[in-house]
Amino acid sequence: MKLYYAQATCSFAPHVALREAGLPFTLVRYDMAARTLEGGGSLEGINEKGYVPVLELDDGQRLTEVAVILQYVADLRPEARLAPPAGTMERYRLQEWLNFVATEIHKIYWPLFHDGSDAEKAGARAALGRRFGWVERRLGVGPFLMGETFTVADCYLLTVLNWTRAAGIDLATWPGLVDYRKRLSERPAVRAARETEGLVRRG
Ligand SMILES: N[C@@H](CCC(=O)N[C@@H](CS)C(=O)NCC(=O)O)C(=O)O
């Protein structure tokens, strides 16, 4: 399998999931600033929608959309317990989280990273703040979104929490989320993904 990714973007979530699952994969880097794809070609040539992540399967099929790629990866390695079995109520709970992170957090950042007006940026920060407060309450003292078990929903939430500083949001407002982010960042798969994407500060 091949994951098309861009540094520190939402593709970080499937990148971590692939490592958590212990699956073999290669990476192809998309440079968002230069709009170039490692090895040549264009991102649109890989995904007409023009964005990462794209997971290319060994038979050449390509899968897009973070929430779907995450579940696909989890289902390839059920013993890693990255998602409850399909058809169970717990699986719908996982999908509830994935959809929430995608539509109520991930996409709400848009004006903060794409030259939104000051009013749009303030609105986005306020909306994100309300959602972070709610997530913090839901997390309670449980280590992960689904309780005791780390799942692909955590891969996604961690990814979007990693953007707060760049978006001018002080995560310290939600100490529970600071702890959660720290806890997850210490996982070997997360460390390895950060290292590979060049996100580890040296010296
Ligand atoms: N709905 C898509 C959104 C993916 C998306 O927003 N990708 C961003 C990075 S987080 C991207 O590749 N942007 C390309 C660009 O801005 O050039 C998904 O869930 O996978």
Description:
The protein has two domains: 2-79 and 190-197, Glutaredoxin (3-Layer(aba) Sandwich); 83-187, Glutathione S-transferase Yfyf (Class Pi), Chain A, domain 2. The protein has a five-stranded mixed β-sheet with strand order 3-2-1-4-5, with helices on one face. It is built from nine helices and five strands. A hairpin with a 4-residue loop joins β2 (26-31) and β3. The chain has 203 residues and is of the alpha+beta class. Glutathione is lined by residues 6, 9-10, 32, 51-53, 64-66, 102.
Assess the beta-strand content as a share of residues.
Answer: 5-15%
| Bound ligands, each once | glutathione
> Looking at the structure, what is the overall shape?
globular
- Counted up, domains total 2
**CATH C-level category of the largest domain:** Mainly Alpha
**CATH-derived topology of the largest domain:** Glutathione S-transferase Yfyf (Class Pi), Chain A, domain 2
Helix count, DSSP H or I runs of 4 or more residues: 9
Over the alpha carbons, how many angstroms does the gyration radius reach?
17 Å
Structural class label: alpha+beta
* Topology, number of strands: 5
CATH architectural name of the largest domain: Up-down Bundle
Summarize the biggest pleated sheet: 5 strands, mixed
- Averaged pLDDT: 97
Low-confidence stretches: none
- Tell me the strand order in the biggest sheet: 3-2-1-4-5
